[in-house]
Amino acid sequence: MKKIHHLIINLFILGIASTAGAMGIQPGSLNISGIVGGYTFDSDERIKTRPVSGIRAGYNFNRNFGVEVLSNYVYTENKSTLENANVYRYGADFLMHFLPDTRLVPFVAAGVGFITVDWDNQRTDTSGAFNYGPGIKYFLNDNFALRGDLRHIILRNNDRTFNNVEYTVGITYQFGGMNQRSWR
């Protein structure tokens, strides 16, 4: 057991050391991300878990802090009535990046927005929502990164609170900004 702990610690240190020369987050840069994944609704909503797709666009104020606007889409149905629904999530998140000048950049995000559920184009429910969760970006080069996100989404509708979960992966294109190597 002790050997496994030492192996894990050594691999972690090696992973951080091997990414130390990567560009990571560029201050003043813009970014755009395409994402896909899954969206799980609170069981009380009686809506099926389905794939989600979307787009995010952001700006990095500096190496540690950024902001993103987002728009996501889910096509799903009610578990009991089998009524189809188009679900739209849109809003803005603040991001805080950790280890921003490495190839592997973990971050946390929190934000607000809205969720609109359009039931077979007959009725529409829109709710305010708060979300938070972790994410990670793995930079392939100075401009492209793979990303993964997990969000706990809390929304209130008809005096009830619901807890949804969104889990996504995608690719980010980062452009503009100040090159970190010349910035330091």
3D architecture notes:
The chain is mostly beta strands and 184 residues long. A hairpin with a 4-residue loop joins strand 6 (123-139) and strand 7 (144-157). The chain has a single domain, classed as Porin, CATH 2.40.160. It is 11% helix and 62% strand. The chain is elongated, with a radius of gyration of 19 Å. The chain has two helices and eight strands. Mean pLDDT is 89; it is low at 14-21 and 180-184. It starts with a helix and ends with a helix. Strands 1-2-3-4-5-6-7-8 form an eight-stranded antiparallel barrel.
Secondary structure: elements and pairs:
Blueprint: H1 2-18, E1 29-40, E2 50-60, E3 65-77, E4 84-97, E5 104-119, E6 123-139, E7 144-157, E8 160-176, H2 180-183
Antiparallel strand pairs: 1-2, 1-8, 2-3, 3-4, 4-5, 5-6, 6-7, 7-8
